[in-house]
UniProtKB/TrEMBL annotation:
This is Peptidoglycan-binding protein. Residues 9-64 form the Peptidoglycan binding-like domain. Residues 94-273 form the N-acetylmuramidase domain. Pfam families: Muramidase, PG_binding_1. The lineage of its organism: Bacteria, Pseudomonadati, Bacteroidota, Cytophagia, Cytophagales. It comes from the Bacteria. Gene3D superfamilies: PGBD-like superfamily/PGBD.
Amino acid sequence: MKTIKYRSRGPEVRFLEEILSDMGYQVYVSNYFGLDTHHAIWEYQQKNDLVVDGIVGLKTWSKLLEQNPEVLQQNNKLLAEQDLIAFGNEYDLELATVKAVNEVESSGKGFLADGRAKILFEGHVFWRQLKQRGIDPNTYFNQQTSNVLYPEWTRNHYKGGGAEYDRLQKAINIDTKPEFEDAAYSSASWGAFQIMGYHAINLGYPSVKDFVQKMQKHEREHLKAFGEFLEAKNLIRHLKRKDWAKFARGYNGPAYAQNHYDVKLQRAYERYK
């Protein structure tokens, strides 16, 4: 594993923070190694008779994985080369293109350290989804629900990692009506490619619950949903032409240029090519 420390960034940091969070440490799960993670590692190293330096190198990684063997059980859920080849054949895409899109547009990996599909719950989407089901969200909006049900987008309530499942369950538990579970599942993005649940029916799934169940099985299911999404949004044509800007705009929205998604896609393609 890569050695990481305070101010490091990357998927290894997220993986570390997912493990620490599952162990009960109060850390914000992201791609950034902040002070909260630094303090958690100091505490962990002290408790486990390791050198207390805040650096997560081979010895600290080894101890963490030894104590959390379940994180390795998800290895049978990961994409393989043949999955990307099959995807390219299905959509008539060059393998280098498929690998570039998988690298840039996936969220590193599709599962948390505990084996559940990665999610992000969006309270403003939940607000809209309830309205679409004939339920007035204002009726349920109060101090207790305001971190999972709100009218406008904000990142202030994001928790990351497994804590997003706590937010999802809290939304479901607001009311016993089945519409709340359906709306909550529809209001989270799922898996490696973070496909929103409300797309499920349009992508050919019989229900959002069926979509959610499939997202828990394998990254292959995430890739399948991603392909269905690209086809539904008519984005495959841009990949065939290597028009990275149009593809990035269609998939990531108008902020794609600010985040250089088109540049990242082109660079990744040239590397795999």
